[in-house]
Amino acid sequence: MRSAPQRDFWTLFFAGWIWHSLYTVTGYNDVVGLIAPINESVWEHLKLGYGATLVLMVQDAWRSVARSQSSSIIGRAIGIIAMNVFIVVGFYAYSLSIGRSIVVVDIMLYGVASWIAVLIHNRINERRPSATMEYIGIVMLMIIAGVFAWWTIHVPASAIFHPQM
Q1: Where are the alpha helices (DSSP H) in the chain?
Q2: Count of other CB atoms within 10 angstroms of residue 112
């Protein structure tokens, strides 16, 4: 049987892969497009970690009910932020240094970022955050969703928001 970190990693990894196609599979549903990638920009791909974490949180809820295992919401929220910072820094560091992006490297970046998010969550979860911190985590998740939605509708001119050719 796999350990919780391994299960969490694989859930994040495969849910992100599925999340990548969610907008297309739902017939280009605009509501889904607020939190699922709508194009091949770096910004839109940051939604993969958010969506996969939402799936992981459903798994967390199941574990909580079925096995009385708690999971930290603030840990998941901070994990998303760390995941996305790692992806952006990693992507631009390697693609600007070699002059192009490579899909396999991008997938590996997402995998490493997923593992980082799991480790951060587990470290925070071990400390048993207070109810106040958990509420802050909920607010953080809502703010992240709001930022994704806002910048999907009101796309800034920056290169990170436009598809890489």
Answers
A1: 4-25, 42-45, 47-67, 73-98, 103-126, 131-153
A2: 14
Residue ranges covered by each domain of the chain: 4-161
Query: Across the chain, what does the average pLDDT equal?
Result: 89
33 token code pair = 């497009």
The region, left, alpha or beta by phi > 0 then psi within -120 to 50, assigned to residue 12 is alpha
In this prediction the pTM is 0.86
CB distance 43 to 161 below 8 Å = yes
Cβ neighbors of 161 (< 8 A, separation 6 or more) are 41, 42, 43, 44, 151, 155
**Using one digit for the tens of pLDDT, what is the confidence trace for 75-124?**
999 999 999 999 999 999 999 999 998 999 999 999 999 999 999 998 99
Cβ-Cβ contacts under 8 Å for 27 (sequence gap 6 or more): none
Nearest to 80 by CA among 126, 39, 34, 35: 35
* Token pair listed for 120: 């951060």
Sign of CA dihedral 129, 131, 137, 138: positive
Query: Residue holding tokens 């796309």?
Result: 155
